[in-house]
What does this fold into?
Amino acid sequence: MPECPIGHRSEDAEYCDVCGRPMDATPALGEGAAGFCGNCGTARSPDALFCENCGTRFGDPRDAARGASGRQAPPHRDVPHIPRPRDPVSAPQGWIAVINADRAYFNSVIAELGAQAPDLEFPPYCPERRIPLRDGEVWIGRRSESRGIMPAIDLGEAPADPGVSHLHAVLNARSDGTWTLTDHGSQNGTTMNGEVEILKARTPVPVGDGDRIHVGAWTTITLTRQGGP
It folds into this structure.
C-alpha cells in the first residue's frame, strides 16, 4: 500500500486517506515518518503536534528555522542549567498550587495553532490537583528520571499536557512571603492571568495570591495562600 509524503498508508493513489495530502506532494520542512524534532533531535511520529521530549510545537516556524527535517536529526541538547538563588529562602507557609485543565486557555491555544489544531483534544477528565508548596524552589514540568528532573508540579501525570517542557518553569520563594516565577527557556512559553504576551525566558517575575500561570496546551496553575503569613 502506498504512503503519503508524511508516512500515512493510503488506498487512494492520488490523495491520502488519512490527511488528504496529494500523494506526490513534497513534504513540508519538519514533516516525515522518520522526522526529528528541530530543537532536541528526538524522533517524531508523523501525527505528533508536540515533541515528546522537549515539548516543542511542530509546525511552528521557529521549529523549521531550527532545521527540523525528515532526513537528519540535529545534535541533542542537554537540559538547561538551573541557576540557584544567591540567598535561598525557605517556603512560606500556606501556599498551594491549584492545577486545572483550563478550557478557555485551551481554546486560545487552538486559535493560535490554526490548521495544526484538529488533533489536539481537551482532556475529557482531568480532576483538579492541589499541591502544597513546601520548598523554597518548586519546579514545573514533566518528570524525566534519566535527566534527573523531578518537578514538584509534574504535568506529565495523566492526562499529560503535551505542550509542557520537562523543565518548563521554576517558582522561587521570596523573603516577603511571595514568589517569583521564571520560565527556563521552555519551547512553548509561559503566560499569566489570561494575557497573550509570553514571559521573557530566564527572567524572574513576581507572583502572588490569585495569580494564574498558563503553560502547555491546557494547564493553568493558580497560586493561593491559605491562612495568614
Summary: The chain has two domains: 31-61, 95-225.
